[in-house]
TrEMBL record:
InterPro entries: Acyl-CoA_Oxase/DH_mid-dom_sf, AcylCo_DH-like_C, AcylCo_DH/oxidase_C, AcylCoA_DH/ox_N, AcylCoA_DH/ox_N_sf, AcylCoA_DH/oxidase_NM_dom_sf. It holds the Pfam family Acyl-CoA_dh_N. It comes from the Bacteria. Residues 427-448 are annotated as: Disordered. Residues 274-414 form the Acyl-CoA dehydrogenase/oxidase C-terminal domain. This is Acyl-CoA dehydrogenase. The keyword Ligase does not apply. Its cofactor is FAD. It comes from Streptomyces auratus AGR0001. Belongs to the acyl-CoA dehydrogenase family. Residues 6-119 form the Acyl-CoA dehydrogenase/oxidase N-terminal domain. PANTHER family: ACYL-COA DEHYDROGENASE (PTHR43884), ACYL-COA DEHYDROGENASE FADE28 (PTHR43884:SF20). GO terms for molecular function: acyl-CoA dehydrogenase activity; flavin adenine dinucleotide binding. Keywords: FAD, Flavoprotein, Oxidoreductase.
């Protein structure tokens, strides 16, 4: 097999890195997150219009570039390196793939070209902070994670002119600015209980409100209230959505099939996990690069602290971990695109567990590198104003949003069939249900 990148892929990486080096330094990031939308809208329009980042993995028939998960992962690695605040992940890795997979011809033609050019942004709305569960990253997504008739979820009921949604959801990526909301809601009551996806055309971005401020859904969306939440990682804007009889349309045609929705969410989770893993690798690489530069300049006892063997050993260990995480992220993206050896089956599915495992390794590596960066920067690294905190906050919040790491690994092991006899199974909360202190049980339970 040939795992080398093509010249086109190298060019995508080089062009984006040069642009972000000029336009997205640490001071620019801190200024952008304090604007009402939480990101630099002018830079986003340039990234979308000039480079076509939102439509990178969309077919050319819908205005996309026609690339695949590998190119999207390379782009996310560069945006992660700059800790870029943007709606890229929410739009390109969550909303657009679901519309492409499940949407009717009218919905795809009406939304995907605008999403591909950045004219519209989108996101996936999952109640209860169950994003990782909905995407089948930490457990099967065939349970009642969308509410199941309980409080705290989102309920959908048919109406004369479509559907009505009622409920709330928190930790929605870019939820306060996205114009297209793909909402996971429970419907059917007890007789036909199922989870389906619905489209809500929200207001345009850049309206009133700001960090912690409220804004309604606009005149066309009565009953929608969106609040930008205060988060430790300001570069990953999140919002709380309250829906009170909000008009919506079913994503797709007919009455909807829960099995198709679960399969589409799982497939989207594989692509999103590969992209997020690459993004975490880029962030860890930037943190390590800045730390290496700092220890070469910072002097102690009359010599740079980077000359001390103990510091060199710590940095060498971080470098090895980073390269391993990068390899795993690249392989996950490559496998997701149907190129892995045996990784893509007849239906084009990625190698089981590869994306979740890569995400787990990348998140763990980012956490370790960010913590060491703070330590090796000394007292200045502990101040909120220093750029080392950008990496530390991203590491902490990504694992809270997408992890924890041990559940990602347990799910990957389950998908890959490493354990026989149900040694790793999903519990009601979406995580692994262990009968012992570890996921690995007796040796006889392992398939060799």
């Amino acid at each position: 097999m040939d795992a080398a990148f093509t010249e086109e892929q190298h060019e995508i990486r080089r062009t984006l890195r040069e642009l972000l080096l000029k336009r997205c330094g640490p001071d620019g990031v801190k200024a952008a997150v304090r604007t009402p939308p939480g990101y630099d809208q002018e830079l986003w329009r340039e990234l979308a219009g000039r480079l076509g980042l939102p439509g990178l993995a969309l077919p050319t028939a819908y205005g996309g570039v026609g690339c695949g998960p590998t190119e999207l992962a390379l782009v996310c690695e560069e945006t992660g390196r700059a800790v870029l605040p943007s709606p890229l992940i929410a739009t390109a890795a969550l909303a657009a793939p679901l519309i492409l997979a499940l949407g009717s011809a009218r919905q795809r033609e009406g939304l995907l070209p605008a999403l591909a050019t950045g004219e519209l942004t989108g996101t996936l709305v999952v109640p209860g902070g169950q994003l990782a569960t909905a995407l089948a990253l930490t457990g099967p997504n065939d349970g009642g994670w969308a509410g199941g008739g309980r409080a705290g979820g989102i309920q959908a009921r048919p109406a004369d002119d479509g559907w009505r949604l009622y409920g709330e959801a928190g930790q929605v990526l870019a939820g306060h600015t996205a114009e297209v909301l793909v909402v996971a809601a429970h419907t059917g009551g007890y007789a036909r209980s199922r989870t389906l996806l619905f489209l809500v055309r929200a207001a345009t971005a850049g309206g009133s409100g700001g960090p912690g401020g409220r804004r309604d859904g606009g005149p066309g969306v009565p009953g929608l209230l969106r609040t930008r939440q205060t988060a430790l990682d300001e570069t990953r804007a999140q919002a709380r959505l309250e829906l009170r009889e909000v008009p919506a349309e079913l994503l797709g045609e007919g009455d909807g099939a829960e099995a198709a929705v679960s399969a589409a969410l799982a497939a989207t989770g594989v692509v999103a996990a590969a992209a997020l893993a690459a993004e975490a690798v880029g962030t860890a690489d930037a943190a390590l690069t800045r730390t290496v530069g700092y220890v070469k300049e910072r002097e102690q006892f009359g010599r740079p602290i980077g000359s001390f063997q103990a510091v060199q050993h710590r940095l060498a260990d971080l470098y090895v971990r980073l390269q391993a995480a990068r390899s795993a992220a690249y392989y996950a993206a490559w496998s997701t695109g149907g190129n892995g050896p045996g990784g893509a089956g007849p239906d084009g599915a990625a190698e089981p567990g590869a994306a979740a495992l890569a995400l787990a390794q990348a998140l763990e590596t980012l956490r370790t590198v960010a913590a060491e960066a703070v330590q090796l920067h000394g007292g200045i690294g502990f101040t909120w104003e220093h750029e080392a905190q950008l990496y530390f906050k991203r590491a902490a919040c990504d694992e809270l949003l997408l992890g924890p790491v041990h559940r990602l690994r347990a799910r990957a092991a389950e998908e890959a069939g490493l354990f026989a006899g149900g040694a790793v199974q999903a519990g009601a909360g979406g995580g692994p249900d262990r009968s012992g202190p570890a996921a690995v049980r007796a040796p006889e339970a392992v398939d060799v």
